[in-house]
Amino acid sequence: MQGAILIxxxxxxxxxxxxxxxxxxxxxxxxxxxxxxxxxxxPLILLLIIPxxxxxxxxxxxxxx
Length: 65
Prior knowledge:
mainly alpha, elongated
């Protein structure tokens, strides 16, 4: 559940920025637009954060016992 919420938050932040890059005809720079597209399409950072949620859940279960 937390992972889905995090994906939605990051998508809500990065997608408008990418749309701005498209409407501005990539005046900011092509490399910046490339990385924004990567965040919108492939949220790789979230895949690295998901184990953190698992670890946190395990720690909470361990502390409740």
